[in-house]
Amino acid sequence: MQQLMEVCARAGLNAYEMRRCTAADPVLGKPEMILCLGGDGTMLSTALSASSTGAVLGGINMGHLGFLSVCSRDEIEHLVRALAEGNYEVDERSMLEVRKFDAAGQEAERRFYALNELSLTRAQTGKMIDVDVELDGKLLNRYHADGILVATPTGSTAYSMSAGGPLLWPTAGVTCLTPICPHSLTSRPIVLPDSVEITLRPRERRGRAGESLIFSLDGRNTYPIVLNETLRVRKAPNPLRLLDLPGSDYAARLRAKLRW
Predict the structure, then answer these.
(1) Would you say domain 2-94+239-258 falls under CATH 3.60.150.10?
(2) What residue ranges do the domains of the chain occupy?
(3) What distance in Å separates the CA atoms of residue 68 and residue 74, rounded to the nearest whole number?
(4) Could you give the CA distance from residue 77 to residue 61 in angstroms, rounded to a whole number?
(5) Which of 4, 17, 215, 258 is the least crowded, having the fewest Cβ atoms under 10 Å away?
(6) Which CATH class is domain 97-235?
(7) Mind listing the pLDDT tens digit for each residue in 114-168?
(8) Which position has the higher pLDDT, 224 or 204?
């Protein structure tokens, strides 16, 4: 952090250190750009604040994979020089908006957001779930699986990829529905237009109505859900504006990060 602050000062950039990013910081107000030092997890924890304010989010990879990062710690001076010269690009990445409804159809006050994916699983590991999936109100399938993932193109290289989902180009206007270890071999991942609203309805499985389920956002925040409650997932109104440098090659990034 100290190195970054010093390099920004030499370049004439106004930079302030924040230990925790919030959408309404009393000191910064509404920053134009947020730089995260860490790994993808750090950026995921900051994505909602950045998207809600319209700030550009950039990552300096201090971890291992760094799919979302714009550079490594060794490239800080190059990055700051590009920012000072205005020589950078901004990619818009879609996010998910998740609404929860109770058994009576009443929507919860809070809405949830994810950059990578929503996952729906049982709270007790090793247990399968039955869940009806609807697209714009029409039944697609009742899945019998360890869980269900709804992933953005950005999230296609995360949990969804581990569950056998396809890799999606990050700016593609699609959403991926990926069953986790489905019981049926014909239950395959499906790529959908991101204009579709996806409804997940957990169903009772073999009389075990008392077992609890959870849904998780980006693998970080977990919330309970019970039978007869539903989740409706759609593209969030505000995208994440992600920092990139000119000449960036996503294919080259895939080769480097996935060791192709």
Answers:
(1) no
(2) 2-94+239-258, 97-235
(3) 16
(4) 14
(5) 17
(6) mainly beta
(7) 999 999 998 877 788 999 999 999 999 999 999 999 999 999 999 999 999 999 9
(8) 224
